Amino acid sequence: MVKVEQLEMDAHRAQLTADVKVMVEKYRCFFDWDAPKADEFISDRLILQAVRQVLCNIEAESSGNTP
What we know:
The protein is mostly helical and 67 residues long. Helices cover 82% and strands 0% of the residues. It has helices at 4-34, 40-63. The longest helix is centred in the N-terminal third of the chain and has 31 residues, at 4-34. The N and C termini lie far apart (34 Å). The model has no long low-confidence stretch (mean pLDDT 90).
């Protein structure tokens, strides 16, 4: 049986995806402002690596295991 939390996540997954894309675009703009010739692919990769690290930190905090 699917839990209510999973149903809620499924219902909001598209919005979460859209929000993350907007966030990446927002931080990519910072790269463009500070380094106008910055490579978009490299910028996105760095941003996504940072987001993954933040997510890992948040997950550790929420489970009580701070790094």
